[in-house]
Amino acid sequence: MKHFPPTELALNSTGAVYHLGLLPEQLAKKVILVGDQDRVAMVSSFFDHIEFTSRHREFVCQTGTFKGKRITALSTGIGTDNIDITINELDALVNIDLKTRTEKTEKVQLELVRIGTCGILQTSIPLHSHIISDYAFGLDNVAHFYEIEFSEKERFLAKELSAFIGFPSTIQPYAVSADETLSYRLQSPQTFSGITVTSSGFYGPQGRELRIPTRTADIQLKFGAYNMNGLVVCNFEMESSALFALGRTLGHRCATICLGVANRPLQEFSAGYSKEMYGLIEHVLNQL
């Protein structure tokens, strides 16, 4: 039985996982992940009852019930580096005995749904649309540090889309799919779906250029022009590739649905989207 020493599985003085600051009993099996700390309260505002609240660094957590279902809302902060922490520690909470530091024989499968904001890459998708990620195209490096099995279609998509954009050899993107069953439950007649580009930054990596010249000028237009038998690149965001790759490898169901707050090719940015975000959150809670 594998044993995890304190340097590999870090716990705090209360026995909680180090970064999230959570104990196993404080986590529900259905988890909504949000980047923004303040968005946790938006999610829990729909709860019938809140049983637990914590705040540690950027990781704000509230667990409660919605229509009789136990749900955890957890903020991750921005970026795939934080997702690496979040997914590993969530999995440890349910699949490692924190007291004996040994892997459990019977595994628990979590449902992890990311609700975020994104930049739209198609002129045909209006602001405030709901966009489901069928695939994440990762410009980050997180998955490259792990032994992850990619399907033939994922490997093909990564290679073809990389060639289409014309990435230099120093950038090696990967493609990974969301959980089809969970993503299907999030769909509605108003949702769009396709490929989501997970970027390692907000400015240069997404084609934005302020005072430093970039090597990715107009990359948003190049992504928007890609079409493989109707599969198009819908949006930019910063978390889903690591979520899908690590979550699936650990045996969890993972999906992402985002609110489009900017249309990059049309150069439009939302003047405010609080009402629309509440609507998206309510939609996801009802579908879960």
Global Rg: 19 Å
Please write the CATH class name: Alpha Beta
Tell me the number of strands.
Answer: 14
The helix tally amounts to 7
Give the proportion of residues in helices.
25-40%
Mean pLDDT: 96
Order of helices and strands: EHEEEHEEEEHEHEHEEHEEH
Count structural domains: 1
**Overall geometry:** globular
Structural class: alpha/beta
Give the DSSP E fraction (strand runs of 2 or more residues): 25-35%
CATH-assigned fold name:
Rossmann fold
Strand arrangement, largest sheet? 7-12-10-8-13
CATH homologous superfamily name? Nucleoside phosphorylase domain
CATH architecture: 3-Layer(aba) Sandwich
Let me know the largest β-sheet: 5 strands, mixed, barrel
Low-confidence stretches: none
